[in-house]
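Propose amino acids for all 152 sites.
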């Protein structure tokens, strides 16, 4: 598989990524979240006082269990709902669009029954493209090669 560059936005350089179980459930479950969109990683970093984007070279190991959502689909929505409600999955790496704050509000409304699935899709229009790649296992983390970091 071809080499790609991914970015992780945070408050410090992350030379050795780890999988940390957080208090909050996320789109694709527990893992180390990155993106191929540098500007998106910069937005993630801007949440902190110290704003750092770590940069990695990645070559995906095709022996790993990789789930890729090439677009927002019913399966993508169901997967996010399952992960956001704490259900675990068996993938090493998950790739796809991000349910940003606005989209996640619609996901929450759908989960609560406030809106229907059809209403969700009518509302779910991104203002800008999003992308996330989540490294969910220690084996998946081995695909990352730290290249350096930039302050935002």
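Proposal:
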């Amino acid at each position: 598989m071809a080499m790609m560059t991914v970015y992780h936005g945070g408050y410090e350089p992350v030379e050795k990524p780890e999988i940390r179980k957080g208090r909050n459930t996320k789109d694709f479950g527990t893992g180390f979240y990155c993106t191929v969109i540098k500007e998106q990683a910069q937005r993630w970093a801007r949440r902190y006082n110290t704003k750092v984007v770590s940069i990695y070279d990645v070559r995906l190991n095709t022996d790993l269990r990789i789930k890729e959502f090439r677009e927002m689909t019913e399966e993508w929505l169901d997967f996010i709902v399952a992960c956001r409600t704490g259900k675990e999955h068996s993938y090493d790496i998950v790739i796809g669009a991000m349910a940003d704050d606005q989209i996640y509000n619609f996901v929450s409304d759908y989960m609560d029954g406030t809106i229907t699935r059809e209403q969700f899709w009518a509302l779910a229009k991104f203002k800008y493209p999003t992308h996330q790649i989540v490294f969910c296992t220690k084996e998946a983390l081995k695909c990352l090669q730290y290249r350096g970091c930039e302050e935002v």
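Residues 3-151 form one domain. Helices lie at 38-45, 74-84, 101-112, 117-123, 138-141.
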